[in-house]
Amino acid sequence: MIIFSALYFIFGLVSWVNAILIPYFKFTCEISEVQSYLVTFAFYIAYLLFSIPSSVILNKYGYKKGLTLGLWIMSIGAIFFVPAANLRSYPFFLTGLFLLGIGLTLLQSAANPFVTMLGKKESAASRISTVGFFNKLAGVLSNLLFAALIIGASSKTLMADIKNGVYVGVFREQALDQLIKAVIMPYLCLAIILLIFGIFIKYSSIPDIDTSKQNSSIKANEGKSILKYPSLILGVFAMFFHVGSQMITLATVINYAGTLGFELEGIAKNFPSITMALTMVGYLIGVFFIPKHLSQRTALILSVSLNLVLSFLIPVVHYQINIFGINASMSILFLMLMGLPNALIYAGIWPLAINGLGKLTNLGSSMLVMGLCGSAIIPLIYSMISVKTSMQAAYWILVPCFIYLLFYALKGYKINSWKFTRQ
Asked: Hey, where are the domains in the chain?
């Protein structure tokens, strides 16, 4: 658990910093609103494309080698940021993000079932909450650290001067070139950390897990197709809508705050960290209350219900309050507050979806990881809606996501056959 908590911390360092990259690349690469959300698309579409290949790799070479390979692929992706910054090339940045996503897909395909199987299935959500806490801790720290490194005092002044038209023509291009090179050192350090951690995993005492042996008592799935498990397939869609809605809260909060008068170089850059700090509180609730005081399914129902209410409030509330010295809509607070219940949704879906898969657990876990591509697709759809309406109105996209999640928590996970007969 200590090693995997560290591994999930690495996940957080890599993935949650995307919330700042979106507005940062929009400014420095001079791209459109929709184009800026290709950051999350390039990163998370890897989950859709490489989840099944990851399962094949893990089955052939083992979990331990899979973890090592995943970390090294991510290291290569981080190194891509060096030439991308020197050339100020958005396609190069997207390539690096895609490679980071491929490595992370392989890592999560191995790590999630490992954590689930470390103890009783009734306490799986508690273990997932534990490693999830460290994942979000890294997210909070990486956003604060990344913001401090790339949007320091000198960068703030340079950004303000560019916005105010101090630099024009070739001088503006030179200023943007200088500004974007601030990402080189953080990602170079990240590449080294990933490389070293991969070496550590390779020579550590972590054993491989054999899901076929761990589930040898389950014989019902012999010769049965993975598609004949409705609870898993519906769970994949639940994961899709969960991570997609979660990514909206993180990836859009800075840009939405900008429409309310908050500046990227000001307090707005800390909003993703505030959201993830609330998620950390949610994970702590999971660690201490599941399953002793609260079943993981009950926690899932409560979390989804709360976020369903918040998803209705965000697009309709226009009440103004003073937030960090700025009169802004209370909806920004509701958006960040969604981070609290989001913590227990992932932890609730995973064990319900893979329950009873037996020898198909590897493939089922990979399909659940495939569902994480929701983080690529749903924010992109949100951005398309926002340019046609407004950023606040576009948050209506969250409502159907949580309606489906509530269906899965109440009934979907119990469905064991696609055949419906009339009673």
From this structure: 2-204+226-413
Write down the residue that tokens 């050339």 correspond to: 87
Sign of CA dihedral 39, 42, 43, 45: positive
Q: 229 and 357 in contact (C-beta within 8 Å)?
A: yes
Q: Which amino acid is at 394?
A: A
Task: Please give the backbone phi and psi of residue 39, each rounded to the nearest 5 degrees, phi first.
Answer: -60, -55
Among 389, 135, 92, 410, CA closest to 286 = 135
pLDDT digits (tens, 9 = 90+) for 14-68: 887 887 888 889 888 989 888 999 998 999 999 889 888 888 888 788 888 888 9
- Judge whether 365 and 113 are in contact, CB under 8 Å: yes
User: What span, in angstroms and rounded, lies between the C-alpha atoms of 370 and 49?
Assistant: 8
Place of tokens 């079932």: 113
321 backbone dihedrals φ, ψ, rounded to 5°: -135, 165
Phi, psi of 207, deg, nearest 5: -85, 160
Radius of gyration of the chain (CA): 21
CA distance to 56, 180, 258, per residue, from 157 (Å): 50, 14, 18
pLDDT digits (tens, 9 = 90+) for 386-398: 999 999 999 999 9
Chain centroid to CA 64 = 23
The answer to whether the beta carbons of residues 263 and 326 sit under 8 Å apart is no
Q: Are 13 and 190 in contact (CB under 8 A)?
A: yes
Residue type, 26: K
**Matching residue, tokens 């690469």:** 29
Q: What is the dihedral of CA 78, 79, 82, 84, to 10 degrees?
A: -70
C-alpha to C-alpha distances, 12 to 104, 241, 273, 282, nearest whole angstrom: 10, 20, 12, 16
In degrees and rounded to multiples of 5, residue 108 shows phi and psi of -70, -30
Span between the terminal Cα atoms of the chain, in Å: 47
Contact 63, 208 (CB under 8 A): yes
2-204+226-413 has which CATH code? 1.20.1250.20
Q: Which amino acid is at 16?
A: W
Token pair 């791209």 is found at 31
**Model-level pTM greater than 0.90?**
no
Alpha carbon distance 288, 108 (integer Å): 24
DSSP 300-357: HHHHHHHHHHHHHHTTT---EEEETTEEEETHHHHHHHTHHHHHHHHHHHHHHHHTT-
Q: How far apart are CA 85 and CA 184, in angstroms?
A: 7
State how far the Cα of 57 lies from the Cα of 34, in Å rounded to an integer.
34
